[in-house]
Amino acid sequence: MNRVDIQKTRQKAIAALRAFFQKEGFLEVETPIMVNYPGMEPNLDPVKVVVQQEGEPSEKFLITSPEYGMKKLLAEGLEKIWQLNSVFRDREEKSPFHNLEFKMLEYYQLGINYH
Amino acid sequence: MNRVDIQKTRQKAIAALRAFFQKEGFLEVETPIMVNYPGMEPNLDPVKVVVQQEGEPSEKFLITSPEYGMKKLLAEGLEKIWQLNSVFRDREEKSPFHNLEFKMLEYYQLGINYH
Fold it and tell me: Contact, A64 vs A44, CB < 8 A?
């Protein structure tokens, strides 16, 4: 597949995902990519960045998953949410199946279990 | 507005944008956020990151706009494209109207002018 076909196929997949979650009553959400506190998973390395505002440097991180931002929204009262967002993981191996930047689908629903 | 209302309002705005561009025959696209070569605008500071793969450090940048990635897609043959993506600009001033990370709407159409 060339890049044009990849873009077209990707949009078909995303449209199907969006239709599914909409039918199931999930709200699509957006949460920040560059944050003060990344995930706490011991086996993942967040990408660290140093930014400056008005001469003050501050350390930030790119999210390894949207989990923390989405759980804040659950705490604010949303009950069924989903997101397809860009995430970043440092020190991943080099292979045709790994990229430091990739898209992650994440969804949450209050009050359900696996059964 | 609280965070819940912000998320709901944001989704209404995005759905309206998506419907508009779809009606006009534009393909929604996705291009990378972390790149080897950022924009060349002399008045913008890209956020620099250093990542590692298999012990090799490399310097990357977060996009200041999706322009370069989208123009590559025009060169590949797509003629009407749009994207709403996260962009990053270092050394922005601190104000209620500035954030180092924000969403940018960008669209391209071959062969038209302003008239």
Answer: yes
